[in-house]
Structure of Pimeloyl-ACP methyl ester carboxylesterase:
Amino acid sequence: MKLLLVLALLGAPVTVPAERPPIEWHQCRLDPADAEGAALDQAGAECGELQVPLDYGQPDGPKITLALSRLKATGDRIGAMVLNDGGPGGPGLSMPLRLRPAMREAGTRYDLIGLDPRFVGRSTPIDCKLPFSGWPWAGGADRSTFERVELQVADIAARCAANAGRYLPFVNTRNTARDIDQVRIALGERKISYLGYSYGTYLGSVYLQMFPGRTDRVVLDGPLDPEQYGARLLRTAGPANEAALRGWAAWAAARDSTYHLGRTSAQVMASVDRVLRVAASRGLRIGKHRLDDGTVPVVLMVPLADDRDAARATYAGFVRTLLAATYGSVEPGPELGGLLDALLTPASSQLTSGQIAIVCGDRAVPRDRQVYWRDIQAHRRTEPHFASLTRMISPCAYWPVRPQEPPTQVANAEPALIVAADGDPRTIYPNAAALRQHLTAARLITVRNARKHGIFGEYGNDCADRTVIAYLLDGQLPADQTC
């Protein structure tokens, strides 16, 4: 009722089709090169498509396609669970393959539903035809880099207007939540369960607000504060990433015989600082790519969302290559090479286009470049490695359409289980407490001394995993607890 009243005030009343929309299930593999589909088929999953309104204000108007997978329960069935991997704009079709084993004894009790959200993956796609796929970029060490990168993000917005303009008004989280409810109806479920990571926690929170009473068990891992979600979300993450970088430096210093980056944390940090300094002055040549102070902070920040030894070892390899490139051209290893290809070529243009469009479609941002420049300058001393990245202007400042609806005000007593690491470098821990206040019936599991984004089934914390699994099995929310 509240949703209908809000939309009526906006002049866009919503009438959801009453009939159950059909899903025709079939094998998942599209062609011999489709590894994702082959893996789903091998696991016994099935795939299907669902037609939903492009514009829920015109339910009988143009339709778009949602692609989804289903891995049916083989045990005593509890219900259907929709999965979202965050992003925003992350594809979810193959998530059941990862989540079934992670859920252990609960894994076979659910029909696991992998969903490519609207305009993502196999669903009706948008593609801004970007010349490179990385975003966000950093504003760099000085005004010249800031202005150059500003032109790049303005160009992203222009490309999205030119190549995906007809869809942009309808790319937002509220419409994705409406899509999830259409999936629920199509599956014939009175209630659905939901598990979302990162941005998926915001999507899940919005669904709880818009469609109360339609969920069974809800897990929100790596939570976002609904009041803070938007294109400027990362501006609060700089200190956590600086701390994660220092934590890694101490780890690497203790293993100097292996990585040769310095015997003390200060020496390791000096190596990182040299990389940034040379990137800003003359750039780094790594394989076919040239990196500068607009791109190096991205490479330094991406791997920091995991503090396990294997991830830290990979990060050390990245820094060693970057450091070597300060003395001359070098070739990257396969992991760094893959990251650079993903960032600096058009290979992931479709994925990045969906991510940008969702962020820009949800919440307006300041359009004055000086707001961002002043913000960066004010935090260079306290956030020397990442302020120019986390506080940089985004394509949303040039976005061709305004958000079509106000941001969702999340405030309800729908049950949910929130899972958070106290040192999460992406969605910082205060988000968890904030979401806990917005969802008054929710409970919170806190994993201490962990700098990891995404805990359940990923981090290897048995306390957190077992608590989530018990909730998925019996539906009883635990008390708030620390693992």
Remarks:
- The chain has two domains: 2-127+167-230+409-482, 143-160+236-345+362-398.
- The chain has 17 helices and eleven strands.
- Residues 2-127+167-230+409-482 form a domain with the Rossmann fold fold (CATH 3.40.50.1820).
